[in-house]
Specification:
- This protein is of the alpha+beta class.
- It has an 8-stranded mixed sheet with strand order 1-2-4-3-5-8-6-7, with helices on both faces.
- Strand 9 and strand 10 form a beta hairpin.
């Protein structure tokens, strides 16, 4: 660290000038070429207005409210089932998929009982087929817990958090091998169930009026080809729900790298959009804004290379769906039959879990869900016009809502990852951005409640095709 002694102004300036020039040269020469172009070389654009920015909803969930012991207890019970391979027994109470289901049902029933009857438990039985069922129809089951929304206009919008309770060994087709599946994905099930507890407690529901519906899921068939999530999407459609967001927690229990706890990774795909503004990407941005960059690491790809999770079914359907996954995976403890080879231990066992990290993930999921279901409905038909003109013009539609404070106009440089607030519109469904080019930025609109909760942002859907 440099320390300068007090000297006369002229001498100080003389000493500092060469150093400043040298530091500036180093910074300039080591920066990426695109970063070396000064903004002063661009035409001046209007600065954002100084809009009224409502604070986020009060009553954020404290980290201390997370019950790590109950999460550990649930994982211990499902691991004790030996295997939860979806092709194993659904009737044996001590081993197999049915044993795992029973442990999940027992835990969510305890939570429902403590919710003063607000949480509704559903066991969804179905039959399905895939290559990993040898193309034969097999029985499977999902477990759902539903917390109905209080707003008649929004109660048919559902936000889902899910983990899969099935597990696998090295051979996914062998249901007789031990497959403890502590991290993959009993950890995600524990997070989903803990979110159900945090958000369905009478203290939480009396303080916050959740406008949209919440669905806490533990599903089967993931390792057999995302079969449980495909069924869950079919089920929510049959119930008449519109999916506001799907949060998949898969492998969220370990954080063994030096310096833990680290941020959880949040994967989101761009869909078919060139500007990375798919519904899934907007959901990821909303979650990061709620929980903070210190907690969430945005990963702008749909999933890990060559891997897939239950969010993918929803994502491919054009719905907002993201995946939470631990910071640095250890593949010796995933999809492995428990064994020791050449002194290396394989297998997905309890002892590799980090419950401090897992508790952080549960809290971040719960707080994101809390704010999303407190928010007004997002605007629809958001459009951008004003090409070949000096001003950008935005229009949108939205039903009347006495609990809505207005709308935030968002913008970002086309190379930026995150939105900034340009303006706030208290009334009306249009905005004119004076002197703002339609081409230098992307734009979006989101609804803001009087309680400060924001909807997921909706980007402009105006195509940029040629006019002929």
């Amino acid at each position: 660290m440099f320390r300068f002694r007090r000297k006369p102004v002229r001498r100080t300036a003389a000493v500092l000038a060469p150093l400043v020039s040298l530091l500036g040269l180093i910074a300039f020469s080591s920066a990426p070429l695109v970063a070396q172009v000064s903004m002063r070389n661009d035409p001046a654009e209007p600065a954002p207005n100084k809009p009224k920015i409502l604070p986020r909803p009060s009553g954020a969930i404290p980290r201390s409210n997370v019950d790590e012991k109950s999460m550990r207890d649930l994982i211990e019970r499902v691991v004790a089932c030996g295997t939860r391979n979806s092709l194993s027994s659904w009737s044996d109470p001590k081993r197999g998929a049915g044993c795992g289901r029973d442990q999940v049902v027992a835990r969510i029933s305890e939570i429902a009982k403590a919710s003063a009857g607000k949480l509704q438990v559903v066991i969804d039985k179905f039959e399905t087929t895939s290559q990993r069922t040898s193309n034969n129809p097999v029985p499977m089951e999902n477990v759902y817990a539903i917390l109905p929304g209080s707003d008649p206009g929004m109660s048919k919008t559902v936000f889902i958090i899910s983990g899969h309770f099935d597990s696998r060994a090295s051979d996914v087709m062998d249901p007789n091998l031990d497959a403890p599946g502590a991290d993959d994905d009993a950890s995600g099930v524990a997070v989903s169930m803990e979110c159900a507890r945090l958000l369905s407690r009478p203290a939480a529901t009396e303080r916050d009026s959740f406008r949209a519906t919440l669905l806490f899921a533990a599903i089967s068939g993931e390792e057999q080809g995302l079969l449980g999530s495909a069924r869950m999407l079919e089920w929510v459609k049959q119930q008449g729900y519109t999916v506001g967001g799907m949060l998949d927690n898969d492998i969220v229990g370990s954080d063994s790298a030096t310096g833990a706890p680290h941020r959880v990774r949040l994967f989101s795909g761009s869909g078919n959009e060139d500007d990375s503004d798919s519904p899934s990407r907007e959901l990821a941005r909303a979650i990061e804004e709620i929980d903070g960059r210190q907690a969430i690491r945005l990963i702008f790809i749909v999933d890990r290379l060559g891997r897939g999770g239950d969010h993918y079914v929803f994502y491919k359907a054009g719905l907002p769906a993201v995946r939470f996954t631990e910071p640095l995976e250890d593949y010796r403890h995933q999809h492995q039959t428990p064994r020791t080879e050449n002194g290396v231990e394989y297998g997905d066992q309890m002892k590799y879990l980090n419950f401090t990290f897992m508790g952080n993930v549960a809290r971040d999921n719960a707080e994101a869900l809390r704010q999303l279901v407190l928010a007004p409905a997002p605007p629809k038909d958001v459009k951008l016009s004003g090409g070949i003109s000096p001003d950008a013009k935005l229009t949108w539609s939205s039903p009347d809502d006495p609990e809505r404070a207005g709308f935030e106009i968002l913008w970002r440089e086309t190379t930026d990852a995150r939105w900034s607030i340009y303006d706030f519109v208290a009334a009306g469904q249009d905005a004119v951005l004076k002197g703002v080019s339609t081409d230098n930025h992307f734009f979006a609109v989101r609804a803001v409640g009087k309680n400060g909760a924001r909807s997921v942002a909706v980007p402009t859907n105006t195509g940029r095709s040629l006019p002929f």
